Amino acid sequence: MSEVLRNYFKLPNDDKTSPAMKLAMVPKTSELLWGTQRRTGTRAIFPIVRLRNVHVFPGIPQLCEKAFDQIEDLLFSKEGNRFFSHKIFLNIDELPIASTVETIAQKYKDVATIGSYPKINHSYYKTKLTIDSTDKDAAESVLGDLTTALKGFVLFCFGEIC
Asked: Domain FAD synthase middle: where (predicted)?
């Protein structure tokens, strides 16, 4: 990483104090992912840093978007890793339904995730639930279980008729 930064910023080899060199400070156990520039087919100028299952992207939105595009093939295979998502909007606060949601989340813990997000002082809904899975049938089963268990509180499901 130091060499990449020295070349990019045209720094002398012995310059270890330049503010630009702070970008080279990554854990030794991290891995550098080099994407491909779609327009030219050449290697990306800067790598994305991966430490186990954490990917570090640039903080500048335009560079972050470019980085996602450049390493998309490294992160997501063409055959799999498609995500199936649902959103459920409820007219009840989060706490009264928390145990019901947790029970369903535990039932599907190996195949789906459920997120619960309270919305304070909103004129239409009080809680939004999200369902994410790489298995379409599992996502639909979770959706079915939640809408059945929370019947009477469901306002609508994003992309689905409940």
From this structure: 82-152
